[in-house]
Amino acid sequence: MTETTETTEAAVTAYDLVSMGRIGVDLYPEQIGVPLEHVRTFRKMLGGSATNVAVAAARNGRRAAIVTRVGDDGFGRFCREAVAAFGIDDRYVGIHPTLRTPLAFCEIHPPDDFPLLFYREPRAPDLELTVDELDRPAIESARVLWTTGTGLSVEPSRTTTLTAMSWRAADAITIHDLDHRPMFWPSLQDARDFGREAVSRATVAVGNREEASVVVGEGEPRELARRLLDLGVRLAIVKLGPLGVLAMTRDEEVVVPPIPVDVVNGLGAGDAFGGALVHGLLAGWRVERTVRYANAAGALVAGRLGCADDMPLATEIEQLLAGADAATSR
After folding, report:
1. Which pTM was predicted?
2. Contact 207, 192 (CB under 8 A)
3. Residue 100 lies in a domain
């Protein structure tokens, strides 16, 4: 991307978050517990993990931008309009001239079965991001850069993602979402090798136990977190599902218990966690408070149908935490 006055202004007024990666349209069934072939109606929403994280951060009052690509089609126009409507800077949402904007369908079988069906063939536009499309000053000056495992799965997105990470200062917050989707990778070994390279360039790694195991090998959660720290991050977060969340630094270990919720759709919970994690880190909170806050954000979204559309406001998250604290003290 050629440096312009607009680019220079973006660098001077740094984003709180620049997120890189997936974007698309979520088509989620309005009939719960029904197989896809029997679903009658779907709710259309903005989707894609990296995009959802940007929305979640924006709902927490953070200035965010998303670096991605859509197709030159009606769904792509919907995505661009939705990104802007959520208050996210859409200047880095590029348009691919031939590839189609991805779609994602799911089935909803609470509490823990949400199979996804992706339409990203022959290639998703967001995987066609190239280094020359990046605004280096904006990426360097962003308070947080968010990257994902899916962005490493193929070229040119892989080199683009790793290059953006290499531009970050050593003391800048660079979060790598382990985000492993097996169907996007040619081999598990590639996922391991490039995942390790990305984690070595990050300051924070976040993912569930299975995703961490892809990068650092099988093990108990504490061992997984230690291995992630050994790769160079300062904070390793391993989500434990119904057991809560483990967060570890070289000097501290925190296990945050789950918040009970009537699950509707668990697919957006991790992205809500991510946006709230960004907010907590930027606020300078202690690790425990940050992870409790992010965990509460994820619980709220798990109780809702959508992902981007249903990301909570900070007031909702604080209210849930206050209620959980009151219940614990009784």
Report:
1. 0.94
2. no
3. yes
